[in-house]
Here is the input.
Amino acid sequence: MPELDAGSNLILIIDDSVDTIRLLSSMLKDQGKILFATNGETGIRLAQMQQPTLILLDVEMAGMNGYEVCAALKTDPTTQDCAVIIVTANTGMEHEIAALEAGAVDFITKPFNPPVVRARVQTHLRLQQHTAMMRQLANRDGLTGLYNRRYLDEVLSLEFERHRRQQLPLALAIIDVDHFKAYNDHYGHPQGDVCLQSVATAISTVARRPGERVARYGGEEFAVILPHTDAAGAERYGRWLCQLVRDLQIPHQSSATAPTVTISVGLAAVVPPVEGSAQQLIAAADQALYLAKTAGRNRAIV
Ligand code: GH3
Ligand code: MG
Ligand code: MG
Ligand code: MG
Ligand code: MG
Here is the structure.
């Protein structure tokens, strides 16, 4: 395991007592960067924007109380991975149970014992870093560093639901390297890996819009989720990707299509009224990819 790094930790303290914030900050300042908020509503907004590693959360506050804040953080996909420790003057089993039921990982009572607080925070920061590392391993493809198929399928289902709720267009691109078996046969498998890495880098450097996600979908296949994109936008994107890969000018002497590496792209878009399912979107993009292949490769079809 790589050395854990306090520099990347972000600790958010939500407490209506400025004295408590000051005290906790001075105790924890060498364990990460400290942010604070003096009420729950501001704390939630800050958590959504900054995605802290750990949140120390007071219970008794004006407006939302700590249990309500915790429950809200745990149901929001942008904040649900932040670990929450409830810090409260309320002692007693029923409070501890309420905290755990709201999704907190730990419960610390005031007045606090500084070494105990520091030790517990340290434990949860370590757990958070290990979880982040596991998530990285579970969601990424080893060769290219792109997301893997499992992750893409998961995100696509969520994005499909979100776009259906909001009635916004959503597109998917499936990309397949042309004559890649011949590439391997000619240049060797290790060089084939290098080629896939180059194509992966090219695709991911242009995926810059919020929510656009690129995955390695299979051996020499990639997929890109294109939020808020209709069929015309998808077609432009597909043509652009084909050009981008041609511009890499990776020699491919045994290709029947061109002397350099090319891709075929199949795209599908759902537009309002958004209906069907993520699986149907994948099937439609796959079908378009098949058409791009049979129409001569090195092209994008919606
Ligand atoms: P088409 O234009 O119809 O897509 O033809 P193709 O040769 O690209 O398609 P085919 O499915 O016949 O071959 C895909 C090849 O991709 C075969 C497989 O060995 C290769 N491949 C899959 N994964 C990897 C990988 O990780 N590294 C390398 N070097 N090759 C891979
Ligand atoms: Mg309070
Ligand atoms: Mg293929
Ligand atoms: Mg194939
Ligand atoms: Mg291929």
About this structure: The radius of gyration is 24 Å. The chain is about 50% helix and 20% strand. The mean pLDDT is 95. The CA atoms of residues 108 and 263 lie 56 Å apart.
